[in-house]
Amino acid sequence: MRHTRLTATHTSPYAQGSVHAYVLHGEVPTLVDAPTADASFLDGIDEALRAQGDGPLAQVIVTHGHPDHIDGAAAAHARWPQAVFRKRAPLPEGDGVPWQVIEKEPMITAGDGQLWALFTPGHAPDHTCLFDVHSGTLLGGDLAINGTTVAIPADYGGNLRQYLQSLRAVLDLQPRVILSGHGEPILMPASLLRGYISHRMTREREVLECLAAGITTADAIVDRLYAATADALKPAARQNVLAHLRKLAEDGRVDPAGDDWHLRSA
Ligand SMILES: [Zn+2]
């Protein structure tokens, strides 16, 4: 899979400053993720296409609808009006982009090959990874970020139970490398993904221990488990704790009562 990585700056809280998009070279020149309408970013796409002898951009695939992955879609549509735009539902409304919805898990012709569009919800309800079976390369969106963990924003479509299922589904594929929306390429995907799963299992145990000790609100659990975390990061920590509590509720192990959460007696 011949590709060029482009990096854009973005102020979204998800982006932590910068986000990558990928130009896939070949018969169907494709952009994976459209982070910004910035003209220099769009020029960079043109330069990457020209350098590889490609024709104009023919397709844009967006991994998920967070602003740092989709804010540039309308500008890309204006510059390459013939390009096809694809993402999983829900589709944005009113952006003027003729989105085509990705349904099920199709093979999509892109660059010089085929990408398998895997539904990988959890970080976002529409999250999709693109897998090049031939090279073992996964275009991972925000499924995994080298050197850190991924936010599961429980109040904004995040779902920890789905995220863990998505991690396991990707582990089963045995990708050789993950090219992420943020950070450097992940060259040992299995160890990072297994680490993510065990990190969440440890956190889940800690949340259960809090509940057993009578610490029953998300805020109180954040204060206990994230005591060393800077105040600015506490809202994100709260979203993660809520994601754990809701997963435990889906698992039938806790019950919510207003802001309180209680262990379900066996
Ligand atoms: Zn995201």
Structural account:
Helix 1 links the parallel strand 3 and strand 4. The protein contains 7 helices and 13 strands. The chain is elongated, with a radius of gyration of 20 Å. It folds into 2 domains: 3-187, Ribonuclease Z/Hydroxyacylglutathione hydrolase-like (Metallo-beta-lactamase, Chain A); 200-263, Winged helix-like DNA-binding domain superfamily/Winged helix DNA-binding domain (Arc Repressor Mutant, subunit A, Orthogonal Bundle). The relative contact order is 0.11. 33% of the residues lie in helices and 24% in strands. The chain is an alpha/beta fold. The longest helix has 24 residues, at 189-212. The strands form 3 sheets. A 6-stranded mixed beta sheet has the order 1-2-3-4-5-6, covered by helices on one side. Strands 7-8-9-10-11 form a 5-stranded mixed beta sheet, with no helix packed on it. It has helices at 39-51, 67-70, 73-79, 160-173, 189-212, 218-225, 234-250; strands at residues 3-10, 17-24, 30-32, 59-61, 84-88, 99-102, 107-110, 113-119, 128-132, 137-141, 177-180, 254-257, 260-263. Bound molecules: zinc ion (ZN). Zinc ion is lined by residues 14, 64, 66, 123-124, 142.
